[in-house]
Fold Ammonium transporter.
Amino acid sequence: MPQGIPTLAAEAPALSAANTGFLLICSALVMLMTPGLAFFYGGMVRVKSTLNMLMMSFISLGIVTLLWVLYGFGLAFGTDTGGIIGWSSDYAGLSGIGLTELWDGYTVPVYVFAVFQLMFAVITPALISGALADRVKFGAWALFITLWATVVYFPVAHWVWGAGGWLFEMGVIDFAGGTAVHINAGAAALGVILVIGKRIGFKKDPMRPHSLPLVMLGAALLWFGWFGFNAGSWLGNDDGVGAVMFVNTQVAAAAAMLAWLGYEKLRHGACTTLGAASGAVAGLVAITPAGGAVSPLGAIAVGAISGVLCALAVGWKFKLGYDDSLDVIGVHLVGGIAGSLLVGFFATGGVQSEAKGLFYGGGLEQLGKQAIGVAAVLAYSLVVSAALAFALDRTIGMRVDEEVEISGIDQHEHAETAYDFSGAGGGTGSRTAAAPGGDAQGSGDLLVTADRTRKVDA
């Protein structure tokens, strides 16, 4: 994301109505991604957790918006202090910003840049929620979001994108959030689940998605919104870089979807809707840091590689024993790492920057910078997120009681259920649909699940 570039007084830009309008549209597209994520995750959980999963994303729209206005924008994009954090009193409450004041070196108002970046801040903690399905108190989650955004997201956003941020100054390439969004959220998810533990019945009970149509709807909304997420991050359309990013976003998502489906067909003998949705998201994640640095052919490589890697990674939880409910680690952490590192191989130079990757004669320099960025964000987010979860768990408690988790978190935490089966006409079908846990299948079925395809033993 190209911010903080100084300009000479004689070259001061003028406000561009076209770029301003474009970025406002992109902001709306990125906002739509959070409800899209809610549907994507909401369809992957069991019936008894549907509303809770939706709310874990939606609440971020409320909490993070207010934090961003009060102090988040200032911490992320204010005047740098030591490469670690920013601050500007003018940004506190967004009260000291002129209506037509331009963002540093660009043709869009500060207000427009601030609201665009707000939508990134909103969706990042929402991504974490997919790893915690079925077992976290809603109030504890809301408090975790508040603390995490303050001490993790805002500082990391400054490292990566803020003028003076240490990763920004080092030359780490992250066009739209491979490190600041996806690695950040994925590492946080790992840190939290290591503290709160596994779902009751993990690796024993079937935990398949209750609504694959909702998953596909959510994936489609994410894909649609991702064009704003990625192309908008260049903050303008004057030099064609945003257009390249738009094309690469589509190309990588397509390649990753096909690669994931190919892996599924070879491994499990079927191409699933859940695999198609997950593969597309994996490609979108991976191209997010890389799309302004690679060619469309490079985007195919980034998408295909990330699609296979993420498909492999979703099975790690069964081998390593951590319970990542909806594969936030497998898709967002692994996809973010893959896309960030692949910049060091496929960057062509002459698009987003002159930096070239190994395959284009640039040697290992850019790859080394990318690796430092990946490691720094992963380590910081993992450790601090685990510490926050531990503190909350030991004080107010992060997990719901065992009986609540078994009977259904929706009714207990929200006094609602996603579906009313009371008027379904009774009979076996009605009783099965409403069974505790929301799993309407016998043991021994071949399941396409949020835990992916596996045989459930009797």
About this structure: Confidence is low (pLDDT under 50) at residues 3-10, 426-458.
